[in-house]
Design a protein that fits this description.
Layout: E1 8-10, E2 17-20, H1 23-51, H2 54-77, E3 81-83
Antiparallel strand pairs: 1-2, 2-3
Helix pairs in contact: 1-2
Amino acid sequence: MLLTNYNTVTCPTCSARLQTKNKRTISLIGGIGGGVGGGFGTLLPINWFYTRDFDYLVLFAVLIFIIAFAAWMEPDKFIKLSEKS
């Protein structure tokens, strides 16, 4: 699902204007995910560069997979739509 203007989306079936009901939850998930992903996404490659320990690259790959999986699952599990009044 792609929210084109980040506030409303038009249903392709019934042409109703829809908006998200739980913007705070979505913002919280995005903020925490971005902070954790950005922090570890920066530290793991830096640690690998200085130590050349392969474990850091494995952890970095796992982190990328978890972020991609969470981004894939978020719309199905957490975004709730309601008709715009």
